[in-house]
Specification:
Blueprint lengths: L2 E5 L2 E3 L5 E8 L7 E7 L6 E6 L6 E3 L7 E6 L4 E6 L8 E8 L14 E2 L3 E5 L2
Parallel strand pairs: 2-11
Antiparallel strand pairs: 1-3, 3-8, 4-5, 4-9, 5-6, 7-8, 9-10, 9-11
Length: 125
């Protein structure tokens, strides 16, 4: 069975950094397309970043561009989201997601087949 396990969330001060990890298992490939989404209370889940398994192309939401970076370790079947210059408005429940390496529309949550449990990121002084 496919499973995504997230870690790395927590409390950080404004301007600080965090790295989220998402370990994938049960996939036929170690290079699935991976995405990160976040959800604010009372809001729809929104796109943060993605990396295509087939090409390695990355995509970012405008709100995090230049501050967040998505990467992967194929040997460990793990995706990462490095977050820097964090702002209070980054506070949200962050989810990782996965789909096939040749998936399209990877900025859309509807393109993903599997989801992690979510990890809370709170940016506050």
């Amino acid at each position: 069975q496919v499973q995504l396990v997230e870690s790395g969330g927590g409390l950080v001060q404004p301007g600080g950094s965090l790295r989220l990890s998402c370990a994938a298992s049960g996939f036929p490939t170690n290079t699935p397309t991976m995405g990160w989404f976040r959800q604010f209370p009372g809001k729809e889940r929104e796109f943060v970043a993605s990396i295509r398994g087939g090409t390695g192309y990355t995509f970012y939401a405008n709100s995090v561009k230049g501050r967040f970076s998505i990467s992967r370790d194929s040997a460990k079947a793990t995706a990462y989201l490095e977050m820097a210059s964090l702002k209070p408005e980054d506070t949200a429940l962050y989810f990782c997601a996965a789909t096939g390496p040749w998936a399209t529309a990877t900025t859309e949550k509807e393109s993903y087949d599997y989801w992690g449990q979510g990890t809370q990121v709170t940016v506050s002084s």
